Amino acid sequence: GADLSSTASASPSSTTSTTDFTQGLLVLLIAQLLSAYMGIYVQDTYSLYRASWLENLFYSHFLSLPLFLPLTPTLRRQYARLAATPPLRLQLGLHDPFSGATAATSISTRSPLLPTSVRTLLGAAPAGLLYLVLNALTQLACISGVNVLSARSSAVTVTIVLNIRKLVSFLLSAALFGHRFPPAMLLGAALVFGSGALYGWETSVRIPAKRRAGEARDGDGVVREKADEGGGYGWVENGRVDKEKAR
């Protein structure tokens, strides 16, 4: 239920000054510019080397692994904390139609609702590691989709789609956790969605319609090409030669 505005009142333990808020916006702006540059760089790479999106997906992750070496102690501590979490127990709300009450029931290793292999995994694996694997799988699906899109679309389209995707994720997260949106943030969201819709209409509706109209206007079976016959220059039109004598 926190207010997401920079001037919202906060407790002394979680204060956010205007300076910190401005620095956060600056980081987002720099990241946005770098993302746009990377989109153009990837587009040029595809056009120059005819590379596959799988190659880009592999090398961009494989070559960045050494950058995590300085964070090895931190990663080990975080993994140890995740490995120390208890097994996952999913809570189901079972509604009693007679009393109108809802009882919380745990799905554990003894639940017949799950396959044996899944029950064994839930009973042995720490919940933190399962969440880590789930997060990695969803990240893989997301970055794979981005690479497929970048291989088939322009860098501008990829950047706009990613902006809308980030905004949708942010709004969904804020709605799920009960945050309140200030008017300026709602205006910014409207600008992002409106700009994306305008770009989508321009590239998917107006430009193709204009192209089809041009093809229909010139598509009456007339094919004109230059011809050279009998020492005169002319145009071949529907198989006929209309010579224009050189003067």
Could you name the key traits of this structure?
single chain; 247 residues; mainly alpha; two-stranded antiparallel sheet; 7 helices; 60% helix; extended; disordered C terminus; Golgi uridine diphosphate-N- acetylglucosamine transporter
SSE diagram, text form:
Elements: H1 18-49, H2 53-62, H3 72-83, E1 90-95, E2 102-107, H4 116-124, H5 127-152, H6 155-176, H7 183-218, E3 224-229, E4 232-237, E5 240-244
Antiparallel strand pairs: 1-2, 3-4, 4-5
Molecular structure report:
This protein is mainly alpha-helical. The chain has helices at about 20-50, 55-60, 70-85, 115-125, 125-150, 155-175, 185-220, and strands at about 90-95, 100-105, 225-230, 230-235, 240-245. A hairpin with a 2-residue loop joins β3 and β4. α1 (about 20-50) runs antiparallel to α6 (about 155-175). The longest helix has about 35 residues, at about 185-220. The radius of gyration is 29 Å and the shape is extended. Mean pLDDT is about 75; it is low at about 90-110 and about 220-245.
The major pleated sheet works out as: 3 strands, antiparallel
With strands numbered from the N-terminus, the spatial order across the biggest sheet is: 3-4-5
Spans of at least 5 consecutive residues whose pLDDT stays below 50 are: 92-109, 221-247
Gyration radius (Cα, Å) is 29 Å
Q: How many helices in DSSP terms?
A: 7
Helix-strand sequence: HHHEEHHHHEEE
- Residues in β-strands, percent: 5-15%
How would you describe the shape? Answer: extended
> Tally of extended strands?
5
Give the class from helix and strand content and strand pairing: mainly alpha
The averaged pLDDT comes out at 75
Question: How much helical structure, as a percent, in the residues?
Answer: 55-70%
Distance between the ends:
84 Å
